[in-house]
Amino acid sequence: MSAMAEATVLITHDVGLHARPSVKFTKLAKSFAAEVEIALAANGPWFDAKSIVKVMAAKAPKGTVLHIRANGDGAGDAIRALVELVQRNFDEDAGHVRSA
Known about the structure:
Blueprint: E1 4-10, H1 19-30, E2 35-39, E3 47-48, H2 52-57, E4 65-71, H3 75-87, E5 92-93, E6 96-97
Antiparallel strand pairs: 1-4, 2-3, 2-4, 5-6
Helix pairs in contact: 1-3
């Protein structure tokens, strides 16, 4: 039996899930073996979270509740990491990359 996990998270980043945030999100999703999908509504449509084209095409602005689900090895870890990334505003402040 494969693991399945899901969560919702509010996008608070000023530009939403576009450009740099989308790249960071898909890059992190790809680091997990589990299949990861996102949706802007609980009933879908669902998009492959490892596809930059599909994530950007979702056009999720600030204030969107992002639905994330994962299935397979590391599903729970993938969900936790992706939710934390969104909650950290994709490691950016006011649309700018945080300095280290």
